[in-house]
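USER: For my understanding, would you kindly supply a protein sequence with its structure tokens?

ASSISTANT:
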Amino acid sequence: MTTGRSLRAAEAIFACAVAGLGIALAVAASQLGGPSGSALIGPRLFPLLIAASLIAVGLALLREAVFGHIAHERGFDLDWAPVGVISLGIVILIVALEYAGWILAAAALFVIVARAFRSSRPLYDIVIGLALSTLAFVVFSYGLGLNLPAGSLTELLGGN
């Protein structure tokens, strides 16, 4: 049986891990190169915003762990099957990214995650996954000038 004390300790450890991740990200972001002078927007901006958010969330979680109400006083069961399927999907994304490219690999991840959440409409999931991954590709590649991998499969089919 899980006690309130052990749940509070676990929540505090998790909160410290989130805040620690934020601190590590802030340190790494502060070492990024960028424009000198008083330029506000540069390569450090978004990592530092995410780091500050992680630190704030970690501190809020720590406060709740110490002073707040325990959400699941008897503990909770984690359904490991979706966790495993989503983890496998992330591995597939990483492996397939270079060959299939961003659009197909991210769409495949979307379909896998939707299936892990028990979606029963695979064709709908494929269409939505392709639309979202294409939108992300266009925004990052053409809007922000960042290069997401197009993949060697795209090159074989006549792309750039």
Remarks:
- Residues 80-116 form the longest helix (37 residues).
- The helical segments are 4-30, 45-67, 80-116, 122-143, 152-156.
